[in-house]
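Hi P.,

Sorry for the delay on this. The queue was packed all week, but I finally got your sequence through. Input first:
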Amino acid sequence: MLNGKVALVTGASSGIGRAAALMLAEGRARVALTGRSAAELQQVAEHIGEAGGEAVSFIADLRSDADRERLVAETVGVFGGLDILVNCAGIIGSGTLESTSMADWRALLEINLDSVFRLMQLAVPHMRDGGSIVNVSSVTGTRAFPGVLAYCVSKAAVDQLTRCAALELAPKGIRVNAVNPGVVVSNLHRRSGMDEAKYAAFLEHSESTHPLGRVGVPEDIANMIVFLASDKSSWITGACHAVDGGRHQTCAR
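Then the structure:
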């Protein structure tokens, strides 16, 4: 399905990024992994290698433009090209209009939006006709939720970036799409400072806010990412796909 294509996946050490990297490799893509944990990235790379795939891992700080440039350059240097970019890395933080500091605002946008924009910009010159970019957004990009203002804004911006870039890159044969997950079991909320008890309560409550009656797992999202990265979606571009158990159909509660 992806035989020989080169994929760069950010946030590949855990959660959705890890699941996407493993599925891309199962489809016979050659995968460049990046994240913040060398040990976790190495585990993913070893798993891919043991299954007969090809993977290389890079530690990178996506707030650093030098690291962004290095990441794309080293991926191309190792594999000789770049066909697929999957922007999975992201952070979340609590805050309202009145309580969000400029430092918190900028920190969140640097990862969730700036890095996505810049990596797309850096990747496109290496992509050929048939290239695919998949941005991991959120249900919060399409619906408003209280208490996570900067996160909602960052994901809404990713959706619009996806649509605008899709129009611009269509003449080159490069497709750009987004996936908008609901609540997915991952480290996203834990890394925002939510302890295990609060996280367990959050997941339990979230079962009632998703019409299908459960929260997601990383593989739910990775399946869509791989589809959008593959030629099976060759007539889809500029689309933001809800993979959220129906959450986007509901009112905030």
